[in-house]
Amino acid sequence: MSSPTTPPSAPTPFHDFGLDPRLADALAPLGFEAPTPIQLEAIPALLVGRDVIGRARTGSGKTAAFGLPLLERVKAGGGPIRALVLTPTRELALQVTDALRSFAKNLPVRLVTVYGGAAYGPQLRALEAGVPVVVGTPGRVLDLVDRGKLDLSALEMLVLDEADEMLRMGFFEDVQRVLEASPPTRQIALFSASMPEPIARVAEAHLREPIEVQVEREALTVHHIEQRALLVPERHKGEALTRLLAAEPIGAALVFARTRAGCAAAADDLAARGVPVDALHGDLNQAARERVLSRFRSGRLRVVVATDVAARGIDVEHVTHVINYDLPTDAEGYVHRIGRTGRAGRAGVAISLVTPAEVRRVRALERTLDTVIAKVEVPTDAEIAAAKRARLLDEVRAAASEAPAPALEAMLDALAIDPRRAAAAALGLLARDRDVALDETPDTRPPSWARRAAPAHPSADEVELFLPIGRTRGVRPGDLVGALANELEVPGSSIGRVTIVAGASFVRVTPEVAERALGRVLEIRGHRVAITRSRRPEGADAPRGPGPGRRGPRPRPAAPARPKKRFDRNK
Ligand code: AMP
Q: Whose C-alpha lies nearest to ligand 1, atom 20?
């Protein structure tokens, strides 16, 4: 009988494997309707006790491919340890445990996760209580074996998940020792995306007539994902990304950076430009990582910047955009990253930020993957404004699909004007409130893209803004331009020269922009900063007096001048 929370489900193809109905019934509520290719091949083989080599990576459904036969075998009761899953990282260990628990929710089977860096106490207590299924990282598993706390003598099934990663991370000796500490009769399922020599040797030595199961190349292709490459100098990547995020219809965006430091820097940069974002990298503890993931999954956080390793196992179905802030090192990495979008038949977009030196690598990717990566330019101000208008209209459309509240009907009646006029006025107010530009926005890109020769002092039609945050807080011109452009909807073209000194920044803007900006508070590099009018002498940042290229009027005698240099510092 099924539990009250799980009404008996209609038979799915999973029931055809001959799985215990309590297992098969648990899958439909998880959205599993039909087996993936790797499941189709691996499940029957594992169920009859064969060893299996699965050439598959995250996203292929490999966890259920080994997890369902594993649970079928161990479905009853407590210890001794009958099944062990080794994973390269604690994240993957926890994720595999979660998946197994969700498959086993109608079964009385207990599982424990063991991994390094966590206290021994709870793991030891769980082991002492007797658990038939252990999921863990090789180092900690071996450690517990050596302490006599983890007995593998009754092991029936061993799963090596992401064996190539375990090899890459230097765990393979531990894996070999675990293999030797378990009875030679145990069944082995070895999953690996690639098959480097040392893994092939281990397979040869320990697996008995394994069945090789390879996800067809088709499943790893990227043809269903719209791919673009945006050519951008390294120093403008932050700005380019901010513009992309503003212009694209993003549901959830996963941004990949190559290193931990790069990941944190990219996230900081985006945050400083007013984009709500979080980073996922190896320096985060499990709780912080879980917080980020749960906000990303629920849609409360739209943008996450991650390293390849931290993103392993991020399993969010609605990722609409994958953005390569840095190009991955090879085609396989590229496929793996962009395969995070376009899941389950959904549309997906992958955009790579490509520096001029990397253009050749994009061509190589196109050749290797037999795909087309469209070369695009950074979105213009007009495109961003149009995207914002479209989003506003979407929101209004969604709201209009429900019957209006009686109070709104009454207000409409009270207005007593043409409903079209009323709707237009209401849209206008909403647009103003959301900083959605309604007037013709120039079709320009940020000023830094097309370097302009800025005059050394504000011209008559410029006003200089003062922001009390500067180089000591790591402020860069892009932070200021980005914050103004995004938070105040200031077109990039109306922002002129930016000067950054230790404790302050000065930005020249048109008088119209100044009117909107003065008195406002912007978030820059994580600090809330009020904008006031600069009172420094005009031309104070001109390096050495008027240069030959100077244009415009001579500086007027300074208003409330501040001394340029303080001579009394050591008095
Ligand atoms: P994995 O490769 O095991 O990490 O699985 C990737 C994602 O696909 C996870 O979200 C699984 O829950 C999901 N999944 C696995 N098998 C199926 C299936 N047969 N039908 C639908 N979703 C699946």
A: 32
What's the predicted TM-score (pTM) here? 0.47
Tokens describing residue 206: 């320990």
Instruction: Quickly tell me which residue has 């070895």 as its tokens.
Output: 190
pLDDT digits (tens, 9 = 90+) for 247-258: 998 889 999 998
Which run of H or E residues covers position 279? strand 278-280
Residue type, 298: S
Residue 247 class from Cβ within 10 Å (0-12 exposed, 13-18 middle, 19+ buried)?
buried
Q: What is the set of domains in the chain, with CATH numbers?
A: 13-218 (3.40.50.300), 221-382 (3.40.50.300), 455-533 (3.30.70.330)
Give pLDDT, residue 552. 35
| Structure tokens given for 522 | 């912007």
CA distance linking residue 566 with residue 551, whole number of Å: 29
Q: Which residue has the higher pLDDT, 559 or 250?
A: 250
Q: CB of 247 within 8 A of CB of 387?
A: yes
Residue type, 101: R
Residues 33 and 323: their CA atoms lie apart, in Å, by 30
What is the separation of C-alpha 199 from the centre of its chain, rounded to a whole number of angstroms?
30
pLDDT in tens, 64-84: 999 999 999 998 766 699 999
Q: How many CA atoms lie within 13 A of 506 on its CB side?
A: 21
What's residue 367's pLDDT?
A: 85
Q: Is 192 in the pocket of ligand 1 (CB under 6 A)?
A: no
Residue with the smallest CA separation from ligand 1 atom 11 is 61
E strands within 122-196? 133-136, 157-160, 187-192
Centre of ligand 1 to C-alpha 92, Å, is 14
CA distance 476 to 470: 8
Q: Which two tokens stand for residue 509?
A: 């803007």
Cβ of 64 below 6 Å from ligand 1: yes
Rg (CA), the chain: 30
